[in-house]
């Protein structure tokens, strides 16, 4: 599974609504505004945009930016970070799917024994 641009947004997810301007988002994560633009160009995240084209970062974007900072501190380059984020997203999706199956299995009646 690859990390697609805009894949951080989940419909109905209140954390996906873009509310922070780039200056505020940069301050919240302790990065420069140019870094945020670079990460967007590299496809690591896609902040929302106003009708006028101004970037608006969501709470989910802030979480991703903090994760990018952690991975950079570990020595990963942007390509490595892209792979790591994609694998983490895939892992999360698989865990959710597994949880749905295991929750459904609890509701099922036990199989009849011969």
Automatic annotation (TrEMBL):
SMART domains: HTH_MERR (SM00422). InterPro entries: DNA-bd_dom_put_sf (IPR009061), MerR-type_HTH_dom (IPR000551), MerR_fam (IPR047057). Pfam families: MerR_1. Keywords: DNA-binding. Residues 19-87 form the HTH merR-type domain. It comes from the Bacteria. One of its GO terms (molecular function) is DNA binding. Gene3D superfamilies: 1.10.1660.10. The keyword DNA-binding applies. PANTHER family: HTH-TYPE TRANSCRIPTIONAL REGULATOR YFMP, REDOX-CYCLING DRUG-SENSING TRANSCRIPTIONAL ACTIVATOR SOXR. This is DNA-binding transcriptional MerR regulator. It comes from Paeniglutamicibacter sulfureus.
């Amino acid at each position: 599974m690859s990390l697609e641009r805009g894949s951080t947004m989940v419909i109905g997810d209140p954390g996906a609504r873009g509310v922070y301007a780039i200056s505020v988002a940069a301050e919240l994560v302790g990065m420069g505004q140019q870094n945020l633009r670079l990460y967007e160009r590299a496809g690591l995240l896609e902040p929302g945009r106003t009708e006028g084209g101004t970037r608006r970062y969501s709470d989910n974007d802030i979480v991703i930016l903090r994760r990018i900072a952690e991975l950079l501190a570990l020595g990963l380059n942007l390509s490595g970070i892209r792979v790591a984020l994609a694998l983490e997203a895939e892992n999360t999706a698989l865990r959710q799917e597994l949880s749905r199956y295991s929750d459904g299995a609890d509701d099922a009646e036990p199989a009849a024994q011969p």
